[in-house]
Design goal:
With 106 residues, the chain is an alpha+beta fold. Helix content is 24%, strand content 36%. A hairpin with a 7-residue loop joins strand 5 (48-49) and strand 6 (57-58).
Length: 106
């Protein structure tokens, strides 16, 4: 991967699913990005957060979650990320997708 790069950031809920097999949405997105040959993608769970519905999601007593936020980040050149964005958008029913500038360090 060479500069310049962009970062696609996708916010979903841990309980969001994809398809008839009810695959976790974050997993389906990361696997699809790999098939589309994106340079790299990572899914991370959040400790706490809220979105447009203003419902706070966080880890509860004994570590049980009430539907934690998940952030998927992907890094590649702008052309690649803009090319895959419509397909990824079609997978995300509720959530936020943003494209930001990034600086490639190493």
């Amino acid at each position: 991967m060479t500069a310049p790069v962009k970062m696609l950031i996708i916010y979903v809920d841990e309980s969001d699913v994809w398809g008839d097999a009810h695959t976790p949405l974050y997993e389906a997105i990361v696997r699809r990005m790999r098939q589309l040959e994106v340079a790299g993608a990572t899914a991370q769970t959040g400790i706490m957060g809220f979105g447009s519905h203003q419902k706070v999601h966080h880890k509860r007593l004994f570590g049980i979650s009430d539907d934690r936020p998940v952030v998927i980040t992907a890094v590649d050149n702008e052309a690649k990320l803009r090319k895959i964005a419509p397909e990824i958008r079609s997978m995300v029913r509720e959530g936020l997708i943003i494209l930001v500038d990034a600086e490639l360090i190493a």
